[in-house]
Design a protein that fits this description.
By secondary structure, the protein is α+β, with helices and mostly antiparallel strands. The protein has a domain of about 45 residues: Ribbon (Pemi-like Protein 1, Chain: D). About 10% of the residues lie in helices and about 15% in strands. The chain has one helix and two strands. It has a two-stranded antiparallel ribbon with strand order 1-2.
């Protein structure tokens, strides 16, 4: 698998802007939810959030019977 790396600028306000070519390659749009991981070298990996994954910090509500 080929891997490509982009260096993304961080604004003074801590905001990251994703270049249009990156958004196109990843098929991300405004509103796409992302997960991220901070690596030991300080780099950050972004992935599309898996909406099926249970959030351990949120308890699932069961319907009342």
């Amino acid at each position: 698998m080929t891997q490509k790396t982009w260096l993304l600028p961080l604004s003074d306000d801590g905001e990251i802007s994703f270049p249009a070519d990156l958004l196109k390659v990843l098929e991300w749009e405004d509103g796409t939810l992302l997960d991220w991981e901070i690596n030991a070298d300080g780099s950050i990996q972004f992935r599309t959030a898996d909406h099926q994954k249970a959030d351990p910090d949120k308890s699932e509500q069961q319907p009342e019977t």
